[in-house]
Give the backbone structure.
Amino acid sequence: MNKKYFISLSIAAALTIGSLPTLGTTANAHSHSVEELQKQQNDISSKKEEINGKIDEKKSEINQNINKQQEIQSQIAEISTKLKDTETKIAEKTKEIDETTAEINKLKEEIKVLEEKIKERNELLKERARAIQEKGGSANYLDVLLGADSFGDFINRVTAVNTIVSADKKIMDEQKRDQAELEKKQEEVEGKLADLESTKASLESLKQDLDSQKAQKAELFKQLEAQQASLEVEKEDLQKESDELSKMEHQLEGEIQAEQARLAELARQREIERKRQAEAEAAKRAAAQQQATTSSSGGSSSESAAPAPSAPSAPVSAGAWTSPASGTITTNFGWDVLNGKKRYHYGIDVAARGSVPISAAADGYVIKSHYSSSYGNVVYITHSINGQTFTTVYAHMASSSVSTGQAVNKGDRIGYMGNTGYSFGQHLHFELHAGSWNASKSNAVNPRQYINF
């Protein structure tokens, strides 16, 4: 467990240590009202919600990290492909350079031979030129022609002279052509070699750059892996904290149910005691009536007027239940439409103007008396009617005059009609649940089954 987790857990535990009763105990439970327990539960729920929000953030960060890793892996694969292609091209260029180098070496041999031929031709031309110079130049050719014995011999001599002159011209032409070809081959091969070496250098530079990119991506991937491992640990710690808060939340829920059950049992015992007292009063009245009858038959006359009952602050019906308020029924139990949207209404709305008192619908104990954003000022009362537990809810009151754990009688004033919470005008929203109240309102019943409005 890391330091952050320990601190968070300690804060959550502080919400309950010294104030939460131990599970399985009932003596301590009596010192904590449902309202106090639910406040503690709400605090823990808020903390848990905050922790779960952080868990979701960590999950999001982990997913983003994984996506980045996948992206980096894809980039590394792409770079590796480029590297392989570049290495192949470098190998090809190296091979071409080797072949061109071999071609150059071969050409050098050919050049060597050609240079020898040129040298020989130069020597031959020098010898011819020397011979012509020694014998008088072109006059030698004229002597050759004039020395002919006949016309046929003259023709032969002309042909021979032309052949010699042509041979010399051919040698000179070949000399010029071979030299030009040599220069051209040298220029082409040297240019080709320079291009190959330049291309190879560019490819080697590209390979070096790709190697660097691949190394950087690999390092980034390593960092992302380490970051993911850290995020996983943080998420696990937060999850442990959330689990601990859930345990505390469930413990408090058990305490709330136990306190509600205790108040319901008090209501049941109170109902039993009320019935016992009623039976005792009835027996006492019957005995008194019998005694009065006996005294009357004995000639004595004794009349005593029964004391007038005290007038209730609001009309109270006979029986176990009474209407909680006077006014007009604006919304009944069941499906209806609110602000254009269909919804299920779990109670009955009674509306009236002025200062309208709200009464307890039956004998019982106050489970909660507090303010909520939806119900406004609201009172929850648990009742025991013929051994069955009921819960009534009085919402949107202007004010409440009862406190949590307080015993109330049917018809007792518990507050005044108002327009607090999520409300659209002064009214009482009254709910009746056959059993305990829960957020899903699964025990809600139509109040008209028990109460005449």
Summary: Residues 151-297 form the longest helix (147 residues). Helices lie at 3-14, 34-134, 139-146, 151-297. The longest strand covers residues 388-400. The two ends are 60 Å apart (CA to CA).
